[in-house]
Model the fold of this input.
Amino acid sequence: MDKNSHIWAAIDGLSKSDLKQLYRVARTLLFRTSFRDPQELAHEALARALAGTRQWPSQAVPFMAFAVMAMKSIADASRKSPEQARTVTFDGFTAEGVSLSGSLWASATASPEDALIESECEAERQMQLEKLRRHFENDRQVRLLIESLANRKSSDDIRTELQCTRGEYEALRKRLRRAVVKLFRRGSRS
Amino acid sequence: MKPSKTYTALAAISREILADLLETPEEQLEEEEAADGEDLDLVVDDMRATLRAAVAAAHVEQSPQSSFDSGRSRVRRMLWVQAGVAIAAVALLAITVGGMVLHNENRAVTYATSTGESRTVVLRDGSTAILNSQTSLQWVGTNSERRIQFDAGEALFQVVPDRTRPFRVAIEGSEIRVLATQFDVYRKSNGTVVVTVLEGSVSVLDSSSEAPSWSRTLTQNEQIEYSDGKLLLDVHSIKATEVVAWREGLFDLRDATLSDAVEELNRYSVRPIILAPDARWKDLRLNGAMGIRNIDATLKSFERIVPGLQVLRTPDGPIVLSLQDHSQPSGATSHAEKRSPR
Done:
């Protein structure tokens, strides 16, 4: 019996409502990844489960919850170690006609290039944040919410600072979510 | 490396909006989507079709009747391929042509990528194709035949087994016939076609006239190159994984000129890259892996490693590479035999 049969069965058993939820979650996370379409992210999570690089503890965790966490984890990792880390391997170059093919892959993470990649990544992150700030230029409350979240304040502290009720806070959060989805519907570079 | 303040900020925003999404009732989300003119039903139908195709393909691969069964690793690899980059093409196309039946294999479907874009598509039979930059191909298969019309660019095919329906790729006066395998097809801008086999075997034959003037069978790690119905490089051995390094955003340069490198980079660059005429270019040879997804970073690396190289970036025009006067690429291998990197 295929050791992945339970994952195949779970995938096959996803309802329309489940798939919509997966798509929505992926869409919400898209702005922090290198993916350009929510389906890519959703499928990546499922593929990792099948490949065994993300283990699904099927006895303890419902498949949907696992899939959501897998997507979140991929999104988190995406900006920490961007794929450019492997693609910008110009340290493999030499103008001296010496082939470096043997050490090509191993040398892909040399530190000077890492620094450059990190600076490019950071620039991209700042652009994303700036785009959000600009979008809410005329919405002071959401702008404050963004700044408070950026400063790692808890939702209780933010509500106190903004002097808003739980319902009002949730409305702000919803405006932020819908804006993120619209602004980054084709990924972080959109 | 410690995450930056911006990274932490975006992570916090992400956490908060994800929490909001998960706490919002589905009915309310559907109302929001309706207000925004979105219909997730179409998207979800496509997601389901794609996943079912993957499940079906995996079952075919695992079937004891299949003489092509090469184990679970292959199934996993296929899923990796399917999930790798952009299965969304199926959805977008389905929406675009709206009203057509998703699983009708008789319907022609065009798949294309723009400059610098790479995406994975699941074909009607469950096979997959990873499209490289500037690629265009059409599924023109029927219920009795699997057929691709290859127009431009490069694609890596992973073909699912179906002995009753051979998989054919028509390209530039030739035809590639396969049963189940993994192979790369690259149609260069000058019309030259390069076929490389990663797994299994394929037959390539001239189809420019009624009686084929040549026909070859390629197996794993073999390549052939032809143009206008004529063989340019007959079947030869090659490390196929290096040929498809583009999947990883890399291009393998072996004793390549800067002109070779620039020609390759132009496949991925929205702005044309031009080499200023200079006799000294021929003395420079490059070896190693070149990044093809971040063109600017690659050009910066050129500037660092090639003494005297200047990269002129005009606001909207081409990017021009030139050598300063009196510069000589240090340690260059003069008169080295030129070899194409592909």
User: Anything to note?
Assistant: Chain A touches chain B through 86 residues (CB under 8 Å). The radius of gyration of chain A is 21 Å. Residues 111-135 of chain A form the longest helix (25 residues). Confidence is low (pLDDT under 50) at residues 81-110 of chain A.
